[in-house]
Design brief:
The protein has two domains: 46 residues; 240 residues, EAL domain (TIM Barrel). Helix content is 47%, strand content 18%. It is built from eleven helices and nine strands. Helix 3 crosses helix 4 and helix 4 runs parallel beside helix 5.
Length: 291
């Protein structure tokens, strides 16, 4: 029976009408996935999902304006498991909702501490990724309300990031929930903008304050072709709609200067700073570095 279930799950990835004959490769894959999911479930329960923080820089001042909080799995032996290992597994179950809330809570606790410790960073924000699964059958509004209340975090200090591709899944349901959260003061950012799924009509339906220019566009800056022109067009379009822009994936000084001159409001990427522990993020704020 277990072998049949393994084959069934693998076949579902092929789409309707797919089939899969059980073999040892299938069995090994499923056993490894089940073991990882079990360990991940335990990690969520025991508080081993933590946040690392990548700085988001205000390009008009060069100062840190906020951080994107990114999920990390802290194993008992001290090793960090990167999200590309466990997020796909979590996305196949409702574990991703628990992980999102764990990261949000971790980020809000730190953000509240930093705002108090560094008055000059009193407007610091944190951006947190939110999976589409939170909008389908969950209690995302109540969960977020609870985190904000328990950590004493102002709603306006939190930006929830939604990927562009997720908008096409259940747009009406997502829009309704997002507007309820926006009424509480939370902000929204559209992640990976420019990947080709959304349209201007979609953008008007959702309460976004920020567009994040996809890293593929930023990576092409400084090379011949149409993509630098597309970055300028995205920034101009966002400005006409009253939206701020964040250039993600800024890895070089040349890219940083290009997006600054293009009129992007904010930037993040390895060329500015890698994702870092909460202690390192605090040290960065204390140094008050300019970019």
């Amino acid at each position: 029976l277990r072998k049949a279930e393994s084959a069934l799950e693998r076949s579902q990835h092929k789409g309707p009408g797919g089939h899969k004959v059980f073999n040892f490769e299938t069995g090994n894959y499923m056993l490894e996935r089940m073991a990882t999911e079990t360990a991940l479930r335990k990690a969520v329960h025991e508080g081993d999902i933590i946040a690392h923080f990548q700085p988001i820089v205000d390009l008009s001042t060069g100062r840190v304006a906020g951080f994107e909080a990114l999920a990390r799995w802290q194993r008992s032996q001290g090793a960090l498991v990167m999200p590309e290992v466990f997020i796909p597994i979590a996305e196949q179950s409702r574990l991703i909702c628990d992980i999102d809330m764990a990261v949000l809570r971790n980020a809000c606790v730190r953000l509240t501490e930093w705002r108090k410790k560094f008055p000059e960073y009193g407007q610091l924000q944190v951006a947190v990724n939110l999976s589409t699964r939170n909008f389908t059958g969950g209690n995302v509004i109540e969960d977020i309300d609870e985190v904000l209340h328990q950590t004493g975090t102002p709603p306006a200090a939190v930006k929830l990031e939604i990927t562009e591709s997720s908008l096409i899944e259940k747009p009406d349901e997502m829009a309704a929930i997002m507007h309820l959260l926006a009424q509480r003061g939370l902000q929204f950012g559209l992640d990976d903008f420019g990947t080709g799924y959304s349209s201007l009509s979609y953008l008007h339906r959702f309460p976004f304050q920020t567009l994040k220019v996809d890293r593929d566009f930023v990576a092409s800056l400084g090379t011949p072709g149409e993509r630098p022109a597309l970055v300028n067009a995205i920034v101009a379009m966002a400005r006409s709609m009253g939206l701020e822009t964040v250039a993600e994936g800024v890895d070089t000084t040349e890219q940083l200067e290009f997006v600054r001159e293009a009129g992007c409001h904010f930037a993040q990427g390895y060329g500015i700073a890698m994702p870092m522990s909460a202690d390192d993020a605090e040290a960065l704020l204390e140094a008050d570095k300019r970019y």
